[in-house]
C-alpha cells in the first residue's frame, strides 16, 4: 500500500494497540491438558515480539494506541514487565508514544511506576501535540481521563502542522457509518478527515480494520488474541515513509493463534473418513503459520449417521477430533472445544406421523420441548418415579435444574433412541 504524504522525510514506525498485558484467562481449569502457562503468558510474549520487530526493523518510534493493560495491576509485576520492554526500546533510541484507553485510563491503574524519558504518555486533560523535529513528524493525541468516555475528543485535537507528517492517536469506538457502537470516545471518519492528518493510529477494536486509505486510518487489532472469539492473525502495522511515499503492512506477532473451524459431515457414515477430513482441515488452517501454538474450536455440522454413533457412544466425535489433531505434522495444536451440531439422517418428521410407540414418543418430545412448564412437571415426576428406583451404578449425575438443561437431556435421550433404531434397521 502506498500513499503520497505531505512530508518528504524518511522514517519507520510501528503502530500497535490493545496489548491487554496479563489479561486474565478464566475457565482454563475446565480443559484437561490445556497449555495453561503458554496461554497465560501469551500477551507478554507478543509484546516481546513487538519490541523484537522494532529493533530488527530499526524503526524510529512506536505508537501504542491504548489498553496496554487489561485492568488494575494486582501487584507491580505487570507494570515492571512493560517497563522492561520499554527500556529495551530506549537502549536502541526508539521513542514510544502512548494514549491511554478505557482499560488503562487515568484512575483505573492505581499503582504507579516512573517510565523512561523516551516513553511519552499523552495528557488526559486535553489533546496535545508532540513533535519529532529531526524527522519532521507531529503526533497528536489524548489519553482517557477515566474508563467511560462518551465525548468525541477529535474536534479539540490540534490542526495539522504544515510541512510535517501528522499522526493522530485515538482510542475510539469509531464507526464508518457514524453510528455509536459503545461509549468509548466515539467519532466518525468525516470528523477524523477534518484534521488534515496523514495517518490515524486507532485502538480499541480488536479486529484489524483499514478504515480508510487516504488518509490512512487503521485499527491494527489487538496484539494477541485472548480467546476463541478473537481469531486469526494478530499483530501490528509497520509503516515506512520515504520521500513523500508511505508504505504500510501488517506484521503478525501473536504466539497463540485462535481458530474457529466449521466442518460439514453430511452423508458421512465412516468415523475413519470423518477423521481424515478433520485432519486435512486442521492442517490447512494451520499451514504456514510458523511455530506458534494453534488453539482451535471445532464445530461439526450436517446430517450424518455419525449422529447416531455419537448418541450411542457419547464422546466419540470429540475423541476423533483430538486424534485428527495428533495426525497433523509440523504444527502445535490444542483443541479448545468441540461442538456438535449434527442431525440424524433419519426422517424424524415421517416417524412422528406414525401410529406406533416411537411416533408417540417423538410427539411427546415435541410437546415437552415447546412447553417449559410441562417439561419441568414431567421431569419432576420422572425423577420421583424412576430415578430413585435405579441402582447406584445406573444413576446419572446429569443436571436437571434448568429448562435448558432438561430440554438438552430430553433431546439427547431422543437421539439415543433414534440411533438405536437406525442401527437396528
TrEMBL record:
GO molecular function, one term: exonuclease activity
Domain Calcineurin-like phosphoesterase: 11-207
Pfam families: Metallophos (PF00149)
Signal peptide: none
Source species, domain of life: Bacteria
InterPro entries: Calcineurin-like_PHP, DNA_Repair-Maintenance_Comp, Metallo-depent_PP-like, Mre11_N, Pesterase_YhaO
Keywords: Exonuclease, Hydrolase, Nuclease
Keyword flag DNA-binding: no
Protein known as: DNA repair exonuclease SbcCD nuclease subunit
Amino acid at each position: 500500500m502506498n500513499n503520497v504524504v505531505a512530508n518528504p522525510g524518511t522514517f519507520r514506525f510501528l503502530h500497535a494497540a490493545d496489548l491487554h498485558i496479563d489479561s486474565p484467562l478464566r475457565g482454563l481449569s475446565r480443559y484437561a491438558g490445556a497449555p495453561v502457562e503458554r496461554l497465560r503468558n501469551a500477551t507478554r510474549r507478543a509484546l516481546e515480539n513487538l519490541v523484537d520487530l522494532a529493533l530488527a526493523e530499526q524503526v524510529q518510534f512506536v505508537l501504542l494506541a491504548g489498553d496496554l493493560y487489561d485492568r488494575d495491576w494486582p501487584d507491580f509485576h505487570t507494570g515492571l514487565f512493560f517497563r522492561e520492554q520499554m527500556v529495551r526500546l530506549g537502549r536502541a533510541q526508539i521513542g514510544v508514544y502512548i494514549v491511554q484507553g478505557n482499560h488503562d485510563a487515568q484512575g483505573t491503574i492505581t499503582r504507579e511506576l516512573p517510565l523512561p524519558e523516551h516513553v511519552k504518555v499523552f495528557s488526559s486533560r486535553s489533546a496535545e501535540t508532540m513533535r519529532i523535529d529531526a524527522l519532521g513528524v507531529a503526533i497528536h493525541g489524548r489519553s482517557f481521563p477515566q474508563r467511560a468516555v462518551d465525548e468525541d475528543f477529535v474536534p479539540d485535537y490540534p490542526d495539522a502542522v504544515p510541512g510535517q507528517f501528522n499522526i493522530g492517536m485515538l482510542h475510539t469506538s469509531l464507526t464508518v457509518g457514524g453510528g455509536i457502537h459503545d461509549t468509548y470516545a466515539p467519532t466518525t471518519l468525516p470528523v477524523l478527515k477534518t484534521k488534515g492528518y496523514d495517518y490515524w493510529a486507532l485502538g480499541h477494536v480488536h479486529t484489524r480494520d483499514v478504515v480508510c486509505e487516504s488518509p490512512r486510518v487503521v485499527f491494527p487489532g489487538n496484539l494477541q488474541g485472548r480467546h476463541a472469539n478473537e481469531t486469526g492473525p494478530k499483530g501490528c502495522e509497520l509503516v515506512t515513509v520515504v520521500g513523500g511515499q508511505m508504505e504500510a503492512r501488517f506484521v503478525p506477532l501473536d504466539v497463540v493463534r485462535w481458530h474457529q473451524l466449521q466442518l460439514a459431515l453430511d452423508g458421512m457414515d465412516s468415523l475413519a473418513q470423518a477423521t481424515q477430513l478433520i485432519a486435512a482441515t486442521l492442517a490447512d488452517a494451520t499451514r504456514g503459520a510458523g511455530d506458534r501454538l494453534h488453539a482451535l474450536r471445532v464445530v461439526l455440522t450436517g446430517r450424518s449417521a455419525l449422529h447416531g454413533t455419537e448418541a450411542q457412544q457419547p464422546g466419540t466425535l470429540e475423541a476423533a477430533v483430538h486424534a485428527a489433531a495428533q495426525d497433523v505434522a509440523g504444527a502445535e495444536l490444542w483443541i479448545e472445544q468441540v461442538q456438535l451440531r449434527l442431525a440424524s439422517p433419519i426422517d424424524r418428521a415421517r416417524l412422528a406421523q406414525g401410529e406406533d410407540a416411537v411416533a408417540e414418543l417423538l410427539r411427546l418430545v415435541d410437546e415437552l420441548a415447546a412447553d417449559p412448564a410441562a417439561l419441568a412437571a414431567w421431569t419432576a415426576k420422572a425423577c420421583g418415579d424412576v430415578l430413585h428406583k435405579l441402582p447406584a451404578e445406573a444413576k446419572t449425575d446429569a443436571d436437571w435444574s434448568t429448562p435448558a438443561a432438561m430440554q438438552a437431556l430430553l433431546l439427547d435421550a431422543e437421539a439415543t433412541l433414534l440411533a438405536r433404531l437406525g442401527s437396528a434397521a
